[in-house]
Amino acid sequence: MSKILPFTEANTQRISSLFRQSLRTAFDHSMKFDIYRQQTISIRKQFDANKHISNPQELEAAIASTKAKLAEWAHPDPYVPPCRPGGTKYQRNIPPPNEHVVPGDW
Q1: Phi/psi at 46 (nearest 5 deg)?
Q2: Is there a contact between 61 and 55 (Cβ–Cβ < 8 Å)?
Q3: Which of 60, 35, 39 is nearest to 50 (CA)?
Q4: By mean pLDDT, which of 2-6, 16-20, 65-69 is the weakest?
Q5: Which residues does the UniProt record annotate as the domain Complex 1 LYR protein (predicted)?
Q6: How far apart are CA 79 and CA 94, in angstroms?
Q7: Taking a C-beta distance cutoff of 8 angstroms, is the pair 18, 70 a contact?
Q8: Residue 94's pLDDT is what?
Q9: Is the pLDDT of residue 71 over 60?
Q10: Sign of the alpha-carbon torsion through 56, 62, 63, 65
Q11: In whole angstroms, what is the distance from residue 29 CA to residue 34 CA?
């Protein structure tokens, strides 16, 4: 994998993706909003603490440690919104097919 220089759009997208994954992981572990809010503030502080990194090697090390922490904290049963694929309401009331379900002349 090629190294991405800091302060570029590609790096911003990588960091934003890691931040969103961190927030989703925190939400999976705490379904109560007040606890989740405190965790989001802590996550934001951790990301802001590394905002100044301009050395590509340090940046890659910080990203690798963040990915490792996300893998460590991955929830075994993450929250899935009900209408999304894998949710409890996904395709609950799908419309009936227009063609015959069983082929043949009835």
Answers
A1: -65, -40
A2: no
A3: 60
A4: 2-6
A5: 14-71
A6: 23
A7: yes
A8: 77
A9: yes
A10: positive
A11: 13
